Amino acid sequence: MERDQDQSNLTLPPLVRMENICVRYGNVVALDGVNFQIGKNEIVGLIGDNGAGKTTLVNTLTGYCRPFDGKIFFDGQLVSFRSPEDAQHSGIEIKYQGSSLIETMSIANNFFLGREPYKHLAIFGKELRYPRYVDRRKMDEILGQEMDRLRIRGVNCFDDYPGTLSGGQREAITIARALHFGVRLLILDEPTTALSEEETSIVLNLVRKAKSNGLSVVFITHKADEVFQVADRFVVLRNGRNFANVEKGSIDLRQLETLDMYARLTAIKELSSSLAHQISTPLTVMKLSVEMLQDNFSVTARKDEFEKITSMLIRKIEALQYMVNNLLDYVRPLVFNKEQVHLGELVASVMEDMPMKDFKDVRIDASGVDQTILYPLDRNLIHAALSNLVLNALQSSPPHATVEVRAAMDKGRLHIEIQDRGKGMDEDTRENVFNFFFTTRKAGTGLGLPFVHRIVEKHEGSLDIESTPGCGCTVRIEL
Prior knowledge:
single chain, Heat Shock Protein 90, 3 domains, five-stranded mixed sheet
């Protein structure tokens, strides 16, 4: 029965339709042509990183922000709310992040907020319009009924101040208020922030009850796992623009989390690309300058100290260049050009590029590479991937250790293995090592292995790591 009701809602005109919404603050574009709609009796999860434009979008809907361009329709009518109060009169209630309750007012006064019931003085059985008095008894009666209807426990004295309430109870008062006053659209901005798991469960149940009572809900969050439990549809914003709009039935939680992460990473790509390019040139100039000092200037006094300082500067600059190159590798689009590649020559080229002077007596053994292999690969991409993996292996290896590189064909597939004799990884590290920005190294970026994974996927291959703490790691690639 509930499924039939949900299906019928899809055919109804939306409660809210926002078209081409643009908001600017001076030269800053907060929203850039955003389209957004909310169906009747629908829960929409509005997802995005900080600065994505989520709060600005709902502020524009409720009249708190004025759009530079765009149209807003509410229940089919073109509207332009002048203030949040104006939107409230039309049945839109917004609860901002943090408490929406006034700490110096009682729980009852917070519930009614200017909509208190009054009793009037009667003379000879006829009520006078004035004077009138707030009906405290009626307020407590209504509030008690709403608490019972929503099964909100632990709120016993409505004359108390909000300081006596838990985080979950504060959210419950907001939702109960919306239900009682016939709100048609309830907007919740990060409603589970700083709540315990139990209180979060209470709030999610109240959101479900809000829908069962006919409300539409916008659930703003960055916690995909929570909103996935209650939302019918998910809208993802990125940098003030639409990024995705998906129905719950067409996506699972893991895909939603990936989509949210991808939106964040896309934003980071845009920022990091600009940043990395701006840093790259000065670093090159700095390195060349230090090398010129080291090679061309004759120092007689404290010569050893001079060489020590310049060598340290070069190492630090190289470390920064490595991080910048990782960022550029990640943000740069993968141009895919397959050709027949002699694998033995490719591995030899990778070995030549390794900074072996930085690793005490560690050597690379590539005798396990079948020198007869010719295989269709993107030479540059696979070279970058193997370079990253071999360098990781060298960095993980203790002095006098050997990094082994092996390659062979099996059933028409290319198998490559890179093995080190370092400390290895525990299970938690191994599960997270391909996640963006996860790193166990102090100077690491957490982009190297995700970049390798991206290259392997581009070749329709697989990448796996086998490791036991204390026994090193073996990275296996199948292409």
